[in-house]
Amino acid sequence: MKILVLGPGAREHALVLSLISEEAGHEVVCAPGNAGIAASGVETPALEYTDPAAVEAFVADRGFDLVVIGPEAPLVAGVADPLRAAGVPVFGPNQDAAQLEGSKAFAKRVMDAAQVPTGRAVRVESTEAAETVLDEFGAPYVVKADGLAAGKGVLVTEDRAAALDHVATWAPHGDVLIEEFLDGQEVSLFFFADGHDVIALSPAQDYKRIFDGDEGPNTGGMGAYSPLPWVSSDFVEEITRTVALPTVRQLEAEGTPFIGLLYCGLIVTEKGVRVIEFNARFGDPETQVVLARLESPLSQYLLAAANGTLAAQPDPVFAQDPAVIVVVASEGYPGEVATGRVISGLSRASAVPGTHLVHAATARGLEGEWIATGGRVLGVVSRGSDFVQARARAYEAVGKIQLEGSQHRTDIAARVL
Asked: Which keywords are on file for this protein (predicted)?
């Protein structure tokens, strides 16, 4: 097939690597892509990938068999809508269904209608309204910006003043939700969805905080691992039955079929599993470890979801070998980031057995050197025969990468051991 992947990040790099590894020999283009994707031998044309008209014109000109939308911004902007209307198979929900991620209030309403287990939430529009709700719920306080916030709209804190400051920061941009605090282990579980049916991938767990021990501010994700040996054998079946299918069927009943990747952000509490959030796309960095273990052709499921034929597909096959990703970030992340610094040692890192790199924010300098251009710079993905080996390989590879002031967590997947 001729496949277009939209997006510029490490998630898109992982999708591209999976697609070009298939025996079918697809022609894959990633727009706008990044320098790491280009180094993988894939065309990365410049494109305003969040502009529906620009994407529609590009696809019409190039004649793709499948369009895969990576990040949330183009989904919420409605990039899928004109493509689907033109008869192009698209993996990614339309603008209305993408509100499942674009608006936490919308997601809560859908969950309530579908009787999906989740925590209580109250919408507030000001700090004055927030004070009463915060006192009712008590600490720890959970405050979430309603719309997209690049992973920085959620605050969990014991500090009431900090919670009110967060409300004051985000309230001018839209509603803010104050939610019940849920305690337990978090799980990311992805589902292919075709508007009516779903197929689950393998669970993963990511690490959102910047520092070891889940300390410091939230980030876009500092690492992840898969599978999760501590979840029950019927966990995926339970979430399919109680969360994913009811949500997809509810959206179908409302006339906004969800076609694409349903990301269920879950927490395993003493009272059972609860949904923390939904996303409308593959998660980053969990995608990197889930796809590293996927042995079935990814394109088969992307196309079946786009065409409404998931019910005819077998469950995907995953390797037993665990996978770990450690994210290397620039100095200052997730605050003000130091960029423009030279990265070295990538070839040595890639040479570690069972290991490959995904690029998030890199560029080539005038003499071919690698340069860091953003906060999360690289992901080191390693597989091993067990978690001890997978972690050892990942951290061996991280140790070979030199970037002045760089930071990474040293405890990714340590809790499994």
From this structure: ATP-binding, Ligase, Nucleotide-binding, Purine biosynthesis
* Banded pLDDT at 123 (limits 50, 70, 90): confident
**What are the structure tokens assigned to 201, written together?**
């991938």
Concatenated DSSP letters for 192-230? EEESS-EEE---BEE--EEEGGGEEEE-S-SEEEE--TT
Burial degree of 120 (CB within 10 A; 0-12, 13-18, 19+): exposed
Q: Which two tokens stand for residue 87?
A: 């008869």
CATH of the domain at 206: 3.30.470.20
* Domain span holding position 373: 323-416
Identity of the residue numbered 151: G
Helices 286-293 & 10-20, crossing angle to 10 degrees? 10
8 A C-beta contact, residue 10 and residue 288: yes
Q: How many domains does the chain have?
A: 4
State which amino acid sits at residue 265: G
Inter-residue contact 62 to 6 (CB < 8 Å) = no
Instruction: Write the pLDDT tens digit of every residue in 161-203.
Output: 999 999 988 888 777 889 889 889 999 999 999 999 999 999 9
Domain with 160 in it: what CATH number?
A: 3.30.1490.20
Q: Tell me if 150 is assigned to some domain.
A: yes
